[in-house]
Specification:
globular
Length: 102
């Protein structure tokens, strides 16, 4: 089930990220910050992540479900998500096709 069809907040987060990170390969990630779980955005081959303000979660599994659902919505496999996340840690860079290059 597409989370953006069942949760308005997810649809807004999806569209906000699509605008803010247009032309970049990114994925949604669960992060723990300031005493609560929230979503973040990891951009391929860039260090760290960008927190998404506003929506917080009580449990890790809830935010992980949202992140996985949003990633599925934007067409990312779990393997692609893993490679994006790993590339943010200063490890091996990943190939980015021309559709994501600004």
């Amino acid at each position: 089930m597409d989370i953006t069809n069942t949760h308005l907040e997810a649809a807004i987060i999806d569209q906000t990220a699509a605008g803010a990170f247009s032309g970049k390969l990114y994925c949604f990630v669960p992060v723990y910050q300031d005493g609560s779980w929230q979503l973040g955005v990891a951009i391929a081959n860039e260090r760290g992540y960008h927190p998404i303000a506003g929506k917080t979660f009580d449990k890790e599994d809830e935010v992980a479900t949202w992140a996985a659902s949003l990633n599925e919505h934007i067409g990312l496999s779990s393997e692609r998500v893993c490679s994006i996340i790993c590339s943010t840690m200063g490890g091996r860079s990943i190939y980015i096709s021309s559709e994501y290059r600004a």
